Amino acid sequence: MAIIVDLDLQLAKRGLSVGEFADAVGITPANIAVLKNGRAKAVRFTTLDAICRTLDCQPGDVLRWVPDEGVDDA
């Protein structure tokens, strides 16, 4: 299973740079990069709240789950 972070898509839709977004959310551009590159092991709800507030979106607009290939649900 993989959790995909679609921040690039959301930032592009809104014409926001990583720096502008990081300032608005209140975290460092380096931490934005960790999220965007899928290297984050966790996201605090306060950070997710700030991301959604800044982008005026729902958590599902930023995060999505993709099942592993070849995994049987049975």
From TrEMBL:
Domain HTH cro/C1-type: 13-62
GO molecular function, one term: DNA binding
Protein name as it appears in the record: Transcriptional regulator
Source organism of this protein record: Streptomyces glebosus
